[in-house]
Structure formats: structure tokens, C-alpha cells
Amino acid sequence: MPTVTRFAPSPTGYLHLGHAYSACLAARAAGPDGTFLLRLEDIDSTRCTEDFCAAVSEDLHWLGLRWPQPVRRQSQHLADYAHAISALTDQGLLYPCFCTRKEILAEIGDIHRAPHGPDGPLYPGTCRHRSPAERADRIAAGEAYALRLDMTEARRRVSSPLRWHDAEAGWQTATPDLFGDVVLARKDTPTSYHLAVTLDDALQGVTLITRGTDLFAATHIHRLLQALFDLPVPDYAHHPLLCGPDGKRYAKRDLSLTLRALRADGITPAQVRLRLGLS
Ligand code: GLU
User: Fold this and answer.
1) Which CATH architecture has domain 77-203?
2) Minimum CA distance residue for ligand 1 atom 7
């Protein structure tokens, strides 16, 4: 089966050297017979802009990468995610969460003592036990709510061990329980990163997911969602994050290291690849 890989940035800034590394690794992993896809994960309408979307394609093109058209933009498929959310709701796996960030922090109390997951303090479960009547009233009153996965129930439905393979770290047994009741649909949009990325990778036939180790832990949740939606399980290759000379990982705020700043400085794509150790 030919390999299908993808680079799936969130267009909330200009691409930097770290993105270039990730994109080039994904393209290389597809090999001559495989397919490398670009996907724009632009569900955050407050931070993603048309300018950043256009810049992603332009910068990767400059770097010498090519991919099939049309590019999937998650913002154009919100109805698909809403449909998947309804399916989980119908199965009784989601519950509305009305909490604000402030309320969650207040409920948690002493943050240092609170139980933590890989993403920080766990959601304390405030809205998990609200009565159907209270939920209905608050929704009818127009109160904003996110939808959280009832992790205990979800785990009960797929009790067999969930395994996935990472090219660097080897076989893993998923432990999504460690994350608690994650948000699958945000207050402002009928999806979250976890839901959209899992559905899209399956929909687009991605067989090998390459991305930075910062998303390694998220794979535990994605593996659970694959089981809940009965989706194929791709292979994974989480790569180390590139660091600048100061030892800190590249970030969107490092404007001097954006591909467009480098290009403006007269750096060539070949020099970028050399700098990334990829030529
Ligand atoms: N859109 C995510 C990000 O920019 C990455 C998605 C993925 O590779 O799974 O951080």
C-alpha cells in the first residue's frame, strides 16, 4: 500500500524552520511512490487568517514541496465534525460543559495538588453530573457550552488494549484515561483539534502520521477516538523538535526564523535544507 503522509499546520502565524523540518520529513516519508498531503487546520477562527493560509502554501512551495489539490481546510468541513459529535452524543459519550476557564481554576483550587494529566491539571468533572433538566434549561437559556468526552464511559466501551506504533518509540499502549474528560467540541466551534485531526487523517487515507514529539501524548486520545469511530490506525513517527542556538524550540514568535524572513535575507531553499540537516 503506498504511503500517505501529511503536514497539517494551524495557520496562526508564518511558518518557521521547525515547520519546514516537519513538512520536509513528511514529504520525504511519503517516498517516490507515496503521497504527501497538505491540510490547513484552521478551526480557530480567532487566530487563523487568510494571509497565514496563503503564506503556508507559498512558503512550502518555495521550499520545493508539492501536494495534490484541493487542500483540505478544516473550517470548510465543520458540518462533518458536527455529524461525528452527534454520533458520540447519541451514544451517551459526551456531556455539555458550561464552565469557564476561571471557574475550572476556582474548582481545582490548589493547582499544585490537583491531579494532572499530560496537558496540565485535569478537568475536575464539575459538569459531568448535572441533571438532564439543568442541562436542558441552561442550553435553552443560550448559555455557551463545550462538549466533553466522558472518558470513563468511553474507556468502558473500548476495553481492549489500544495499541499504536511509533517509528522512534516503538509499540505503545494508549492511556487516554490520563487526560480526563477532554473537550471534543469547543464552545465556539463543533470540533476540537483532537476530533478534527483524527477524523481527517482517516478520511484522507493517511497511513503515516509524522509530527513533532510535542503531540506524542495527544496520540493516546486520537487512538481512543479511532476505536470509538472504528477508524483504521495509521503508523506514527514523532520527530524531535528543532531548537535554535539558545536551546529553545522554534516558535511562531521567532519572526527572524520564519521562512519568509529567511527568503527575504537571500537564503535559498537548499540552504534551509542544509541547515535542517535534510539535504
Ligand atoms: N495542527 C497542529 C499544529 O499545528 C498539528 C496537527 C498534527 O500534525 O497532528 O500544531
Assistant:
1) Alpha-Beta Complex (3.90)
2) 8
Place of cell 499546520: 9
What is the reported pTM? 0.95
Cα-Cα-Cα-Cα torsion 148, 149, 152, 156, nearest 10 degrees, comes to 160
| CATH number belonging to domain 1-75+243-279 | 3.40.50.620
Q: How far is the CA of 106 from the centre of ligand 1 (A)?
A: 30
- Dihedral angle computed from the Cα positions of residues 253, 256, 259 and 264, in that order, rounded to the nearest 10 degrees: 140
Residue 182: its pLDDT value, please? 97
What is the residue extent of each domain of the chain? Answer: 1-75+243-279, 77-203
CA atoms within 13 A on the CB side of 161: 5
| 220 CA from centroid of ligand 1 (Å) | 15
Identity at 1, one-letter amino acid code: M
Give 211-256 pLDDT, tens digit per residue: 999 999 999 999 999 999 999 999 999 999 988 777 888 776 676 6
Q: What is the pLDDT of residues 90-148, one digit of tens each?
A: 999 999 999 999 999 999 988 888 999 998 999 999 999 999 999 999 999 999 999 99
Q: For residue 24, how far is its CA from the centre of ligand 1 (angstroms)? A: 15
* Residue 189: closest CA among 66, 21, 48: 48
